[in-house]
Amino acid sequence: MEYRKLGSSDLKVSVIGYGAWGIGGAPFWNNEGHTKSLNSIKKAYDRGINFFDTAPVYGFGHSEELIGKALKPVRDKVILATKCGLRWDKEALGSIRKDASRNSILEEIDQSLKRLDTDVIDLYQVHWPDVETEPKETMETLLELQQKGKIRYIGVSNYSVEQIQDCLKFGKIVSLQPEFSLLARDIQKDTVPVCLENDIGILAYSPLSSGVLTGKYDKNTKFEDWRSKGIIGTFTGEGFVRNIAKVDQLKEIADKEGKTCAQTAVNWVLRQEGLTTALVGVKNQDQVEENLKAVGWEPSPEHCEKIEEIFTH
Ligand SMILES: NC(=O)c1ccc[n+]([C@@H]2O[C@H](COP(=O)([O-])OP(=O)(O)OC[C@H]3O[C@@H](n4cnc5c(N)ncnc54)[C@H](OP(=O)(O)O)[C@@H]3O)[C@@H](O)[C@H]2O)c1
Predict the structure, then answer these.
(1) pTM above the 0.90 mark?
(2) What are 122-150's pLDDT values in tens digits?
(3) Helix, strand or coil for residue 259?
(4) How far apart are CA 270 and CA 150, in angstroms?
(5) Would you kindly state where each structural domain of the chain is located, as residue ranges?
(6) Which CATH topology does 3-217+262-298 take?
(7) Ligand 1 neighbours by CB, cut-off 6 Å
C-alpha cells in the first residue's frame, strides 16, 4: 500500500480509502449482510488500508456502527473520517435535509462518537454545503469541537471553490471530498488548483462512478437501488448509454494491461494532480482484494493517452 500526507494535517492516509456508504445498506444500497460487511472492513485493515470514510446518513447510523465495531481492536492504528450536516426525520431518502448549524453539529458529534465507539474523530467533514447557515457559524462550531478534543481535523465535502474560500476565512480545513472519476472530472479546472494552493488534500468519492466503471453493467442494466431514481444522468437514459460505451473502450485497454476495468479506473484517479486518496466503496472482501491492485503501476503512455481521449469527449 502507498500512503500520502492529507493536506496540511499530520495524517498519512492510504491511497485506497475504505468507502463505507454501501455497507450502510438501505435505503441507498442493497448490502450483503453484517458478516460480509464486517469482514470487508477487517480485510481492508489487514491489507494496509488505514483510512475509513463513513457518515451518519449511511444506513442511518448503521455504517458508523459497523466501522466502530470492526475497528475497535485497532482504533489507534486507523484514521476514522465521518461527516455532519445531513439530518433525517424518518429513515427515508425523502426526509434527508442539510443542516450545518451549531445546534445540529453539537448533537451530531456525540451521536457519531457513540456509534463509532471512539473518543475522537480524526477527520470531521461537512457532508454538503448548507446555504441557510453562515460558514462562520459552521466553522466556529467545528473549531470548538477541535479545541474540546472531539475531532482532530476539519474537512468539507461537495463544496464549490467559493464555499471553500469562505471557510478558509475562519479556520483551516485539511481536505475536500468531491466526486471524482473518469466520468466526473469537473473539479479539475478550478477546484484542484485552489486545493493545491491551500494545501487541502482531495479525497475522491465514487471513483468507480458508483459501480459503472467496474465494467460489469451493460446499456440494458436497470438498477434497483438509489441509482434507479434518476437523480443524476450517470445511471439512466442516454447519459448511461454513452457512459457504458466509454467503459467498454476502457475495458479493452484494461485487458491489454492485464488489469480489470475497476483497477484501471481507480489507478487513473490516483495519478491525477492534487489527489490524495480514492475512497472506493466495497461490499465484500473480494472487492477489497481486487481494488488494491489499482495501486503501484501505470498504463503505457499510449494507453494513458487513449484513456484521456475516450473520457474527454
Ligand atoms: N461525500 C459524499 O457526498 C459522498 C457521496 C458518495 C460517496 N461517498 C464516499 O465515497 C465512497 C465510494 O463511493 P460509491 O460507493 O458511490 O462508489 P464507487 O467506489 O465508485 O463504487 C462502489 C461500488 O462499486 C462496486 N464495486 C466496488 N469494487 C468492485 C469490484 N472490485 N468489482 C465489482 N464491483 C465493485 C460495489 O457495488 P456492488 O457490489 O453493488 O456492485 C461498490 O459498492 C462511499 O462509500 C463514501 O465513503 C461520499
Answers:
(1) yes
(2) 999 999 999 999 999 999 999 999 999 99
(3) coil
(4) 30
(5) 3-217+262-298
(6) TIM Barrel (3.20.20)
(7) 19-22, 53, 127, 157-158, 177, 205-211, 214, 216, 262, 279-283, 287, 290-291
